[in-house]
Structures are given as C-alpha cells and as structure tokens.
Amino acid sequence: MKIINRKAKFLYYFIDYYIAGIQLFGTEVKSIKQNKVSLEDSFCQIKNGELYSLNMYIAEYKFGNYYNHDTKRTRKLLLNKKELKKINKKLINPGLTIIPIELFISSTNYIKMKIVLAKGKKKYDKREILRKKEFIREVKY
To answer: Residue 39 burial by CB count (10 A; 0-12/13-18/19+): exposed, middle or buried?
Structure first.
C-alpha cells in the first residue's frame, strides 16, 4: 500500500529525502489501510524543535463511533535530532519547504512518511515541462 502525492513532482524541485514515522490514533491507522488519505495540500513545519505534518486529510473511520479522529489535525512526525537539525539548517535558505510525498507501510508494519525538502518551481518551468510531455506524445504517435 502506497499513497503518493503526484502533484508535488510537478510543483517542486526535490532536494533531500527523509523517511519519518507518524504519531497516529487507531482509527487513523485503519483509515490509512483502507487508502482513505490525501496528501495533496499537506505540508510540514518545525515548531519547538519538532516536525509536524499539517493539512493531511485522513477520512474518518466508518466504524469509529465516538473514538473517531479529526480529519485534518496536525500530526507529529518522528525523526532523529540529527535529521531535524540538518533540515532546520537548510530551511534558513529562502524558498525551501518540506513536503510529504509518500505514505507507506514499512516492513515492520509501521506507517511511515517520505518527506522532501523542496523548492517551488516558477510558472515558466511548469510550462516547459508540459511542452516536453506534449512533444514526447506527438513523437510517439
């Protein structure tokens, strides 16, 4: 099971990759295993020396009753202090942000998130990518 943020590759240049664990409630885990997750508008932020994922949508679990979770709550990401310091040093540069691009279940049955230190693309870069894709399609046929 993998949930991928396909839009991120079009909108950003990827610089560094990191794999982080996530603090989740039980009903969130069950919803993720049913693929009811969206990473489209989500991003990450460092607050008080800890990394948090904001705006990630996890649908409510159908059989959750009153134990259900808030769909867009902030979730803590689990990284080593060394990795957090490394990310924090690089975030000093203007225009860099942290984007979650993939959610997956590891071999030890933990849910992990692949995050990327990224820089936003300009409009002309995006147009150039679309032109190249169109050209490749025309050449194929």
So the answer is: buried
Question: What is the pLDDT averaged over residues 52-62?
Answer: 92
Band (pLDDT 50/70/90 cuts) for residue 68 is confident
> What's residue 140's pLDDT?
86
Type of residue numbered 78: L
- pLDDT digit string (tens) for 106-140? 988 899 999 999 999 999 888 998 999 999 999 98
Which H helix or E strand runs over 123? helix 123-140
Alpha-carbon distance of 98 to 52, in angstroms, equals 10
**Residue 16 φ/ψ, nearest 5 degrees:** -130, 145
108: number of Cβ within 10 Å: 6
Give the 3-state DSSP-derived string for 53-72, with helices as H, strands as E and coil as C.
EECCEECCCCCCHHHCCCCC
The answer to whether residues 58 and 36 touch, using CB atoms and an 8 Å cutoff, is yes
Q: What domains can you pick out in the chain, each with its CATH number?
A: 2-140 (2.40.280.10)
d(CA 81, CA 85): 6
At residue 6, the pLDDT reads 86
